[in-house]
Every structure is written in structure tokens, then in C-alpha cells.
Design goal:
Strand order of the largest sheet: 1-2-3-5-4
Structural class: alpha+beta
Distance between the termini: 85 Å
Shape: globular
Radius of gyration: 23 Å
Largest sheet: 5 strands, mixed, barrel
Number of strands: 10
Number of helices: 9
Helix content: 25-40%
Strand content: 25-35%
Length: 242
């Protein structure tokens, strides 16, 4: 009987050790860019989403349906969701920020699965955000000489900064029209900006001429202008249909 009791006790102990880690949380700190979950879902499949999250505009992140979806952080090449408390703190941080895009923060909390139970969010200076996720080298501290602007022409579809390449999530709401063009127009009415979605480079380019871009919402075009690579911005000279 004693032997049986000892065996049962041993098995119970082993099971307890195995089961305990399931669902356990790990404390930590994450530094990266805040973004609403609706927009993060639309850009998760991109090969290099950093360009998008660095320039994700404030007005888009604070749109009603984006706030309702909650917030996430893109850090070290990973997407991590924030819990309800974290989403409240994220919204407060975005509203309080003096930046119009690219909300670079440090989040302290406990990670369970892909969700951070947030304790605090602190905005950080993002002077070298491109060094996220890799070791900083001496090149990161070098000041590059300004390059003269070169005119270029880039093809793509006129979309909006919230939907990017994929409008499906917004169209499912039933309030954004029936096609990509009407979706972009309504997103723009709500505060989003028109962008050029180039499938070849998998990049979204900001456009200086929003009025001209509006005329081609949802359509394939050629945009000619001066490309500011660091700002991911095309200073538009002309937009023509393809």
C-alpha cells in the first residue's frame, strides 16, 4: 500500500511539473512600433513590414474601428498583441505623442502566447529605428551626405495607408463600399492617407499630392516625381493611368 501511495505521489509531482508551464507568462520588455491590430493584420504577410509601421499615421491609428480592434507592437521582427489595458495605454501614448507617425515605444509586461499583459508603455526617441532587431554597428552613427533628388517613375495601385495591399478586412464591415477604390475613398474621409502600393517592391509609398491621388483611388497608375527613400515619400510631379 505504501509503495502504491509513493508511486501515485511521484506521478502527481511529475504531472504538476509538466502542466505548470502551460499558459505560464514570461516577464519582459519589448521595444518597437505601436500599430492598431486592424492594420497589423493587413500587413503581417509582407516580407518587410517595418517600412509600413515606421510611417503608419496617427490619424489612422486613432480611427474608431482601428481603436476598437486594439493595438499591437512590431518588435524584433515579431507581431505581439496588447491586452485590453495595454491597448488603453497605447491609445494614450499615441494621442500624447508629438509625432504624426512612427510611434516607437518600450513596453514592460508579461508575455503569454502572443499577447503582452501590459504594465507600462514609454515612448522612445527613434533616431535610428532601422537598427531594430539587429546589433548596432559603427555605420549606424555615421551621417550620410545628402543626395541630390532624382526623378523617377513608379507603377502601382492608389490605395490608403490603413488598408495598404489588402482591403478585405475593411470591405467585410459592409460600410466601406464594394471595391478597393470606394474603400480607399472612405478610409481617406475618416483620416487615412492615399498611398502608392507597389507589388514589385512590396512597398507602400506616401504621396505628397493627395488631391491628385484621390482621383485614381483603387486604380493602376504611374507616379512620376522625386523619391525620398528615407521618408518613403514620393514628391509627386504627375500621376497618370496605366
Amino acid at each position: 500500500m505504501l509503495k502504491y501511495w509513493c508511486c501515485c505521489t511521484f506521478l502527481f509531482f511529475v504531472l504538476a511539473v509538466w502542466v505548470a508551464p502551460i499558459g505560464a507568462s514570461a516577464p519582459g520588455s519589448w521595444t518597437g512600433y505601436l500599430i492598431d491590430q486592424m492594420c497589423s493584420e493587413a500587413h503581417k504577410s509582407e516580407k518587410d513590414p517595418l517600412s509600413f509601421v515606421k510611417h503608419h499615421p496617427k490619424d489612422c491609428a486613432l480611427m474608431d474601428h482601428c481603436r476598437a480592434a486594439g493595438y499591437a507592437i512590431y518588435a524584433d521582427g515579431k507581431w505581439l498583441k496588447l491586452d485590453s489595458q495595454g491597448s488603453k495605454l497605447a491609445e494614450q501614448a499615441i494621442r500624447a505623442s508629438k509625432k504624426s507617425s512612427g510611434f516607437y515605444v518600450t513596453i514592460d509586461g508579461d508575455l503569454t502566447g502572443d499577447t503582452i499583459k501590459t504594465k507600462s508603455i514609454q515612448e522612445q526617441p527613434s533616431s535610428r529605428p532601422e537598427a531594430i532587431g539587429r546589433q548596432v554597428t559603427s555605420k549606424d552613427n555615421q551621417i550620410e551626405a545628402p543626395q541630390p533628388p532624382v526623378e523617377t517613375t513608379i507603377d502601382g495601385v492608389i490605395s490608403d495607408s490603413m488598408c495598404g495591399f489588402d482591403h478585405s478586412a475593411m470591405l467585410k464591415t459592409g460600410s466601406m463600399g464594394t471595391n478597393d477604390g470606394t474603400c480607399s475613398l472612405r478610409c481617406a474621409e475618416a483620416g487615412s492617407k492615399f498611398v502608392l502600393a507597389n507589388a514589385t517592391s512590396n512597398k507602400l509609398y506616401r504621396l505628397s499630392d493627395q488631391a491628385s491621388a484621390k482621383q485614381f483611388a483603387g486604380k493602376l497608375v504611374s507616379v512620376t516625381g522625386y523619391l525620398d527613400s528615407k521618408a518613403n515619400l514620393i514628391r509627386v510631379r504627375s500621376i497618370s493611368p496605366r
